[in-house]
């Protein structure tokens, strides 16, 4: 139902916000390459945009808006994935530069741990968010009919979460849901009832993950 009414349910503010966030990253990258802004300002601008992009993804999930559908409707996929590429490249470059003695003079020193946290984890966070949403969508649409797909999506989620520090408790919980789901897949009579419960439990873990990213002060 959500997909069928997608075009009529999209708030123009949602499209405008995504457009602004992505172009902030693209414009900052262009100005950095042209030498208009320095490395420190570039990193700060992109990092702020990343934080807003993470919040934006959470809003999409709450509004039941599929990102891929939104990008298609806006004809904006090329720009979006170009921005994600810049994020990934920046994460990789900053991680490798963190121990270099030849860093740009106006770049504040970044430890290996801080580099990983500030610049690598936003990319991982997006992957975890995507894994959560993809798994929940697959369960809602197909239940456990496509067992291999569901197993793969669970494994992808666990693997991505294991790359993020400080969420061991959530990993234990998602593994427990995964193991219980595997056993339920063997009993087709209970699949429909179990599906809703499993999705709700996964969503609660997703909300816990969100809270760990943005704890209330």
Can you put this structure into words, describing what you see?
It is built from nine helices and no strands. With 217 residues, it is an all-alpha fold. Residues 1-9 and 95-119 have low confidence and may be disordered.
Distance between the termini: 37 Å
Tell me, what's the shape?
A: elongated
Task: Give the number of helices.
Answer: 9
Q: Roughly what is the average pLDDT, rounded to an integer?
A: 75
What fraction of the residues are assigned to beta strands by DSSP? under 5%
The quaternary structure here is single chain
Q: What percent of the residues sit in helical stretches (DSSP H or I)?
A: over 70%
Computed structural class: mainly alpha
Gist of the model:
With 217 residues, the chain is mainly α.
Descriptive tags:
217 residues; mainly alpha; 9 helices; 76% helix; elongated; disordered N terminus
Write the layout of secondary structure elements.
Elements: H1 6-9, H2 12-33, H3 39-62, H4 67-74, H5 77-97, H6 112-142, H7 147-161, H8 168-184, H9 191-213
């Amino acid at each position: 139902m959500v997909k069928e009414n997608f075009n009529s349910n999209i708030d123009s503010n949602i499209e405008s916000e995504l457009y602004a966030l992505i172009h902030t990253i693209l414009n900052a990258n262009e100005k950095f390459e042209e030498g208009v802004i320095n490395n420190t300002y570039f990193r700060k601008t992109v990092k702020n945009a990343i934080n807003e992009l993470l919040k934006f993804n959470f809003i999409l999930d709450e509004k039941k808006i599929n990102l891929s559908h939104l990008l298609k409707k806006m004809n904006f996929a090329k720009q979006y994935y170009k921005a994600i590429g810049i994020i990934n490249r920046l994460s990789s470059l900053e991680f490798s530069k963190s121990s270099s003695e030849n860093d740009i003079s106006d770049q504040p020193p970044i430890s290996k741990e801080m580099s990983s946290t500030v610049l690598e984890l936003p990319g991982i966070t997006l992957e975890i968010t995507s894994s959560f949403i993809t798994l929940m969508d697959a369960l809602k649409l197909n239940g456990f009919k496509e067992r291999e797909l569901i197993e793969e999506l669970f494994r992808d989620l666990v693997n991505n979460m294991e790359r993020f520090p400080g969420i061991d408790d959530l990993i234990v919980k998602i593994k427990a849901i995964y193991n219980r789901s595997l056993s339920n897949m063997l009993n087709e009579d209970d699949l429909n009832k179990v599906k809703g419960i499993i999705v709700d439990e996964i969503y609660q873990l997703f909300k816990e993950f969100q809270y760990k990213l943005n704890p209330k002060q």
